[in-house]
Design goal:
Length: 245
C-alpha cells in the first residue's frame, strides 16, 4: 500500500441523502445503515468526482495509506451490479420503493355515505410560475410576500397543503435531489436581496435528500445578509406535519 488521495466521509455530517452516489462512476459509495460508506479503498480513484454534491459538506479528499485503485475490480463490481436482477437498495432512502399506509377514513374524518356530497377545495395559488428555476428574482408578486419554499413532493404527501401551507403565501418549488442546489442558492439569494420578504417557510419531506432544500434556504439567507422570520416544516411520507425549531 502507498500514500495516495482517497475520499473521506465525515459520518457526523452525513445524513444519508445519497446525492454523492450517482456521481461516483466507480460505484465506490453506498448507503449502509443510513450513512454513505466507502465500500473499499480499491474502488476509489481519488479524483473526487463526488465532491461538491454533498449539501452537508461531509466529503473530502485526504492523503493516507490506502490500497491501490483497481480498475479491474471496479469493472467487476459494476458488471455484477448490472447483472443482479434484484439488489438491496443502496441509494438515497428517498428513492426506496414502499407502500404508504394511511389511516382509515373513520379515524380522521367524519364518514360520508351519500353520493350526493361533493367536497371541493379552492386553490390557494395566486401566481405563476412556481418552479424556482423559472421565477424571476424581481417578480412583482414576491415583494412583501410570505414566501413558501416547497420541495416538490410535499403537495402530494400532505393533503392539507393548499389550506394549511399555501394559503396567503407565494410559493416556489424545487427538487433538492434532482436539481442544481447551488443554482437554487443563487436564485434564492437574489430573491431575498431584491424583495422585502415578510417571512420564509420551507416545507420538505422527511427523507434525507430533501433536507437539501432547507440547506439552500439557510445558505441563501446567510449570503443575502438579511434577518427574516424563518420556519421549517417537515412532512412525513404518510402525510403528517411537524414544525421544527
Amino acid at each position: 500500500m502507498a500514500i495516495r488521495k482517497i475520499i473521506q466521509i465525515d459520518e457526523d455530517k452525513c445524513n444519508g441523502c445519497g446525492l454523492c452516489i450517482p456521481n461516483c462512476a466507480e460505484g465506490a459509495l453506498q448507503i449502509v445503515n443510513g450513512k454513505v460508506k466507502l465500500i473499499h479503498d480499491k474502488y476509489c480513484d481519488g479524483l473526487g468526482d463526488c465532491l461538491g454534491h454533498c449539501p452537508q459538506d461531509a466529503l473530502h479528499l485526504v492523503e493516507r495509506e490506502a490500497e491501490d485503485f483497481d480498475e479491474k475490480a471496479v469493472e467487476e463490481l459494476l458488471s455484477k451490479s448490472k447483472k443482479d436482477k434484484v439488489t438491496p437498495h443502496r441509494g438515497c432512502p428517498g428513492s426506496r420503493v414502499m407502500n404508504v399506509k394511511t389511516e382509515p377514513k373513520a379515524d380522521r374524518f367524519q364518514a360520508v355515505d351519500t353520493l350526493d356530497v361533493a367536497i371541493k377545495i379552492k386553490s390557494q395559488l395566486t401566481h405563476w410560475p412556481v418552479q424556482l428555476e423559472l421565477v424571476p428574482p424581481q417578480a412583482s408578486f414576491l415583494q412583501e410576500a410570505d414566501l413558501l419554499v416547497t420541495a416538490d413532493c410535499v403537495p402530494f404527501a400532505y393533503p392539507d397543503y393548499h389550506l394549511d401551507l399555501l394559503k396567503g403565501k407565494k410559493v416556489v418549488v424545487g427538487c433538492p435531489k434532482l436539481d442544481d442546489l447551488e443554482g437554487y442558492v443563487e436564485k434564492l439569494t437574489s430573491i431575498i436581496k431584491n424583495n422585502d420578504l415578510n417571512s420564509i417557510t420551507v416545507a420538505f419531506m422527511e427523507v434525507p435528500c430533501c433536507s437539501g432544500i432547507v440547506w439552500a434556504v439557510e445558505k441563501a439567507l446567510a449570503r443575502a445578509g438579511k434577518e427574516i422570520p424563518f420556519q421549517k416544516i417537515l412532512i412525513t411520507i404518510d402525510g403528517k406535519k411537524e414544525i421544527l425549531e
